[in-house]
Write a structure and sequence with these properties.
The chain is an all-alpha fold. The chain is built from nine helices and two strands, in the order H-H-H-H-H-H-H-E-H-E-H. A two-stranded antiparallel sheet has the order 1-2. Helix 4 runs antiparallel to helix 6 and helix 7 runs antiparallel to helix 9. The radius of gyration is 22 Å and the shape is globular.
Length: 182
């Protein structure tokens, strides 16, 4: 009797269904509307996050201060305007983090669309072309800012935590290869 109890699985009793307002990742890429919604979200996040946004924490504004294209009229000290950037500069850390968060999302999108058989080749190529371009844009800016960078096309977070910097010229070659994938 005890043996029967120990060998009986309770897994079906502890499995939790997906909430009604969520969809499985693989199901997202079976419908053009949900796939386009993911791409739209990627564009929105790029616009709103620090890396490529046009707000005062964004790359364009901050580097314009750094290169004296803009005058800083704020009341607090601005390291970029004063050319006193340290390695622990908060803006630089935010750019780095936001860029790699976007790259991760873009990589997931590329994987999802690539593995989907629900789309015609022309639609698939358009979606992938936009995603490859966004990834290339992020990597191009990262290379211009930091030189050698970790280059990844993976969404495996364990793998991504163990990658090393890729020399900038090799990263540029990888970016270029993406455009020949279509």
């Amino acid at each position: 009797m005890i043996l029967v109890i120990l060998t009986t699985s309770c897994e079906s009793m502890i499995e939790v269904d997906l909430p009604e307002n969520k969809i499985n990742e693989k199901d997202v890429y079976q419908n053009i509307n949900t796939t386009k919604a993911v791409l739209s979200t990627i564009y929105s996040n790029i616009r709103d996050k620090f890396f490529l946004s046009k707000n005062s924490s964004g790359l364009a504004y901050s580097l314009s201060l750094y290169t004296d294209e803009l005058d800083y009229l704020g009341t607090s000290t601005n390291d970029l305007y004063l050319n006193t950037i340290n390695a622990d500069n908060n803006s630089s850390r935010l750019w780095w983090d936001n860029a790699y968060q976007s790259i991760y999302t873009i990589n997931a999108f590329i994987n999802g669309v690539s593995q989907s058989s629900a789309f015609e080749k022309q639609i698939k190529n358009q979606l992938l072309g936009e995603a490859y371009t966004l990834r290339a844009l992020h990597y191009q800016y990262l290379i211009q800012l930091y030189g050698d960078i970790p280059y990844t096309t993976s969404t495996d977070y364990i793998f991504n935590t163990s990658i090393y910097k890729t020399p900038y010229h090799l990263a540029l070659i990888e970016i270029e290869k993406d455009f020949y994938m279509l």
